[in-house]
Design goal:
Elements: H1 3-9, H2 23-34, E1 45-50, H3 53-59, H4 66-70, E2 73-80, H5 95-112, E3 116-117, H6 125-132, E4 138-147, H7 161-164
Antiparallel strand pairs: 1-2, 2-4, 3-4
Helix pairs in contact: 2-5
Bound molecules: flavin mononucleotide.
Length: about 170
């Protein structure tokens, strides 16, 4: 796909067919995430790939929506707070920012491969930690279910550029 088509075609897919995703596609998606930029190139992310049906069913408990485990695969994207960059001037931890960029890379690559994805952040983090044996420093940032879909993209609802863009300095719009 052309880059602009990938951007336009991506939407949050909440309905999946049972068709399995080929492992080579999963590896391409992970490779796209691996190539993402990160603060100081620390790459503080981990990707937990879940494809086994019993593990997907188990994961459903952290975000109990029927469509969620209909997906034949999920990637739980985690950040390691022991490895992420902290800005000296204010201590801000960029773990979330780095993870978000990696997630966007993998989501757009999945779109390019004809797969549907959805960001899921509204999950039970403590339950996720226990199920995936995450140590204290590893934070689950988002779960990305992915697979094939027969659903259609809804129209995009987005603010206009005039509501968002400030030229030269911030101005109240
Ligand atoms: C950080 C983040 C968290 C999100 N969490 C959830 C979620 O927990 N459940 C869900 O169904 N969608 C979730 N979404 C999807 C958004 O609702 C969706 O991206 C937004 O409504 C725009 O729609 P679109 O992705 O179809 O363009 C999340 C998206 C982002 C970026």
């Amino acid at each position: 796909m052309e880059f602009d088509d990938v951007i336009r075609h991506r939407y949050s897919v909440r309905s999946f067919t049972s068709e399995k995703v080929d492992r080579s596609f999963i590896l391409e998606i992970l490779e796209a995430a691996r190539m993402a930029p990160s603060a100081v190139n620390y790459q503080p992310w981990h990707f937990i790939v879940i494809t086994e049906p019993e593990n997907l069913t188990d994961l459903q408990e952290v975000y109990p929506r029927k469509w969620f485990t209909e997906a034949p695969a999920c990637i739980v994207v985690c950040s390691d707070h022991n490895q992420s960059w902290k800005r000296r001037s204010d201590g801000k931890d960029f773990a979330d920012v780095d993870a978000a960029i990696a997630i966007d890379h993998l989501v757009l690559k999945a779109t390019d491969l004809g797969l549907g994805t959805c960001w899921v952040c509204n999950f039970d983090t403590e339950m996720t930690r226990k199920k995936l044996h995450l140590p204290e420093n590893i934070e689950p940032i988002a779960i990305i279910p992915f697979g094939y879909t027969t659903s259609e993209a809804p129209p995009k609802s987005r603010k206009s550029l005039s509501e968002l863009v400030h030229w030269e300095k911030f101005t109240s719009l």
